[in-house]
Amino acid sequence: MEKVVCTFCGSVCDDVEFDPNTFSARKFCALGKSKFSKKERIKSPMINGKEVSYEEAIEKAVEILVNSKRPLLYGWASTVNEAIRAGVILAEKVGGVYDQCSSVCHGPGTLALIEEGIPGGTLGTIKNRADVVIFWGCNPMEAHPRHATRYSVMAKGFLIKDRKDRKVIVVDVRETRSAKLADIFVQVKPGYDYAVFSALRMIVKGEDIDIDEVGGVSRDKLYEVAEIMMNAKYGAILYGLGLTQSRGRDRNVENAIKLVQQLNRKTRWIIWPMRGHYNVVGAGEVPTWEVGYQYAIDFSRGYPRFSPSEFSAVEVLKRRDCDSALIVASDPVAHFPKKAVEHLKRIPVIQIDPFPNMTTLVADVVIPSAITGIEAEGTAYRMDGIPLRVKKIIDTEYWSDEKILTEMLKIIDKR
Ligand code: SF4
Fold first, then answer.
1. What is the dihedral sign for C-alpha 177, 182, 187, 190?
2. pLDDT tens, 319-361?
3. Whole-number Å distance between alpha carbons of 216 and 245
4. What is the pTM of this model?
5. Tens digits of per-residue pLDDT, 246-289?
6. What's the start-to-end Cα distance of the chain, in Å?
7. Nearest atom within ligand 1 for CA of residue 147
8. Neighbour tally for 81: CB within 10 Å
9. Residue ranges covered by each domain of the chain
10. What is the 196 CA–ligand 1 centroid distance (Å)?
């Protein structure tokens, strides 16, 4: 057994073990195990279904991109920072649009952070210090199965010796599996999170709520939760797509941050998003180092412009505002709205991915890649922004995402 780093979800567990000879895995959750198992792969590079060499497929991909007026370069959340960096440079060189999976998940939260900043902390501080943890609009038991034992609910740390030392509250529109782990479950009416944050802010500020309920939550429950928040020594709100993709979106997160700012006048609180794919943080951080923005970046004028309502992948596709697409480590055909997928079917699509998926069915050029964390190495940011080195433990004939994209850049530079 070798110690490896799991490259499935944003928890990026670095205590898991894997035997490359027998493919047996230890300590992984079911999601991680599914990636670290023998799965169907894309066998060879292909152009229009015909098997070709890597060199031929890469040459064809470059030809498509440089002959496009505005290519879309989308995906990036399930690959390493080194590949993402090459992707951002590629987007700039071909005058395309760089967008990543955040634009359909935590992107609105990013807008709130731009407005308000974020009082944040690491998963380590939560594990060691947090005596109150609130999961708001997220379901870690299904999406990040080891989060509860490694970092939050049951995790033991320097100051938290036992589950009894920590109060866990789940706020959601329905009783999820995570709600069953909680000491208190608060059910909010769909679309009313903003109002509930406002009510909590009022109570923390010392004002009175003179109605019986807010957003489906009773006045008594609101006071109970506010009291727990104010009496915490170190509290953490961990939020999910229940906030960023429901009515209010970025304004929900902004209001949550304002609540945390209010609480920090009395005690210590942090707030942090529960990021999904293992390096979706890198897919935002790397373009930020490179060009200043996290997602929805257009280079068609020769300089970067950021406009989520205009340059996010779904909007660009729905407007038919791109004439080719490079999809890396993602499956937009399975997840995007029908109108966006219809345009993907019309334009030349290049796919780079280890595994076949729905996007493979519409791709003109398919380039298989090595699985990062098993066959390729690199750096990934865990959901709390901590960089972790992802290992290569098996030699393979598949090229890494980084190598494929770097070769594409070399060809463009020679032209
Ligand atoms: S919780 Fe996430 S990172 Fe950890 S083993 Fe499961 S899928 Fe992998």
1. negative
2. 999 999 999 999 999 999 999 999 999 999 999 999 999 999 9
3. 19
4. 0.95
5. 999 999 999 999 999 999 999 999 999 999 999 999 999 999 99
6. 46
7. 1
8. 22
9. 41-106+278-414, 108-273
10. 31
CB atoms under 10 Å from CB of 94, counted, come to 24
Q: What gap in Å lies between CA 216 and CA 193, rounded to an integer?
A: 10
Return the CATH architecture of domain 41-106+278-414.
3-Layer(aba) Sandwich (3.40)
- In this structure, what token pair is assigned to residue 73? 């370069």
Residue with the nearest Cα to atom 3 of ligand 1?
12
Check if the beta carbon of residue 281 is closer than 8 Å to that of residue 10.
yes
Q: Indicate the fold that domain 108-273 takes in CATH.
A: Dimethylsulfoxide Reductase; domain 2 (3.40.228)
Pairing assessment for the beta strands 97-100 and 378-381 based on DSSP bridges: unpaired
Q: How far is the CA of 12 from the centre of ligand 1 (A)?
A: 6
One DSSP character per residue, 294-327 reads SS-EE-TTSS-EE-HHHHSHHHHHHTT--SEEEE
Query: What is the pairing mode between strands 387-390 and 71-75?
Result: unpaired
Q: Name the one residue in this structure whose structure tokens are 């020679």.
A: 414
